[in-house]
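Exam revision sheet. Question 4 asks you to relate a sequence to its structure. Input first:
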Amino acid sequence: MNKILWSVLLTLTLTACGTTSGTKATVEDRTGSKADAAMTSQAGGASGGTETSALGGKSMGASALDGSSYTGDPRKNPASPMSNRSVYFDFDQFTVKDEYRAMLEAHAGYLLSKRDARVILQGNADDRGSREYNLALGQKRAEAVRKALAVLGVSDVQMEAVSFGEEKPRKEGDTEAAYTENRRTDVVYADE
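Answer key, structure tokens:
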């Protein structure tokens, strides 16, 4: 199991290093004053048409990350990958799947642009297994997401990984649908 985790982390690291271009992406700060915006535009900042390269090498327009037509908090923009806050896992697993790459990149970009932002990564498990086992599994899931964000450049001081085990189910019941909903790590921002 440990070999799989390390190979996934190595792959993510190598992919991130291989897709970095020499051009820096600009980030629009919609919380600053008009003077801040003027300084950004004088410094060569652009809005709307900036392209950012994802880990998989696919290009995403700036509107996919910050919702150019959305004027509120980018974490709450329903069109943004940041509106997704949960990483789901297979039964008895704690490997982050590739399908969560865009979501984690968006959260990492936000955390890199807001160095004072903090996230709590809350690991969860379904109710199969002992409480102790599920608590440990939830912690491994939270740590897997923390490591994936760290590979993307997020500082350790901005992240905290905790486990709730089976104590915070999203969906009650003994069905596969309920189990699937409960095998997750939630990304929770400290200021929300």
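Marking note for examiners. Confidence is low (pLDDT under 50) at residues 25-67.
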